[in-house]
Design goal:
Elements lengths: L5 H20 L3 H18 L4 H14 L3 H4 L14
Helix pairs in contact: 1-2, 1-3, 2-3
């Protein structure tokens, strides 16, 4: 089984989160299309059928790749939720 490059996955998660924020602030057709593209790419890369499953698998990949400290800073009372959702 092929394993995606954690750097690429991290970049896609960041882009996904940025687009979700941009779309929430101001809905635009261009942003919606790009969000669909990034969501589709994450799903294909992670072998998932939904974006929520893809994000969960991407988070798990980053944790096992030792990239957890780059993705989130552990603080007291941290809920353990993905930053990308």
């Amino acid at each position: 089984m092929l394993v995606p490059d954690p750097k690429v996955v991290r970049t896609l998660l960041t882009r996904y989160a940025s687009l979700k924020i941009a779309q929430a602030e101001r809905e635009r057709a261009e942003t919606a299309r790009e969000l669909e593209d990034v969501s589709y790419t994450l799903c294909v890369m992670m072998g998932a059928t939904s974006i929520h499953d893809a994000i969960a698998r991407a988070d798990a990949l980053l944790l096992t790749a030792g990239g957890a400290s780059d993705v989130t800073t552990q603080t007291e009372g941290d809920s353990g939720l993905s930053l990308a959702v």
